[in-house]
Design brief:
The protein is an all-alpha fold and about 170 residues long. It has one domain. Helices cover about 80% and strands about 0% of the residues. α3 runs antiparallel to α4. It is flat. Keywords: Membrane, Signal, Transmembrane, Transmembrane helix.
């Protein structure tokens, strides 16, 4: 047990360091969007719409940054917990833990790639960030339903499917 606690302390400190480095590597968003030069009176409405659109883009970028931090923290802490569980347990883990680990790995890989391609490929990076949130939500449902009896597992996965359908319908129409 002493080796497991030593391993846990090491991984937690490395995880905290990685989170700090990850969060500080992002440049802070500008406080206010840059103001375009004064337009002629005929295009004043277009200019106001552009400023509003720029404000929305900056707010969206800040919201995505928050999601990135949340998903990254979830992935790293879950990976540490699964690693500790496998060290402490001498027998083979159930297959559901393998699926959980795979979903967490996909979420982390999506965020990792999106982070480093966003400057050149912003649209694929945004899609990868959405995929990371999807994989993190899937991992959450897998993790939560592990101790449940079969009836509650079915209810939980029905909630998951209804949530996915609601997201698809709201984004489609």
């Amino acid at each position: 047990m002493d080796v497991a606690n030593l391993f846990k302390n090491l991984v937690v400190s490395v995880t905290n360091l990685m989170l700090q480095l990850w969060c500080t590597s992002d440049p802070p968003p500008p406080a206010t969007p840059p103001r375009p030069p004064s337009p002629p009176p005929s295009t004043a409405l277009d200019s106001e719409e552009q400023v509003a659109a720029t404000s929305v883009v900056f707010a969206h970028a800040q919201k995505n940054l928050d999601w990135t931090k949340i998903v990254l923290g979830f992935c790293l802490s879950s990976a540490v917990d699964i690693a500790l569980q496998s060290v402490q347990t001498q027998s083979q883990l159930p297959p559901i833990f393998h699926w959980l680990s795979l979903a967490i790995s996909f979420a982390f890989a999506s965020l990792f790639v999106a982070k480093f391609i966003s400057w050149k490929f912003p649209i694929p990076a945004q899609m990868l960030e959405h995929a990371a949130v999807f994989f993190a939500a899937t991992a959450y449902f897998v993790a939560v339903t592990i101790p449940f009896p079969m009836s509650l597992k079915c209810i939980s996965w029905a909630v998951y499917v209804v949530s996915l359908l609601a997201i698809l319908i709201c984004n489609r129409f």
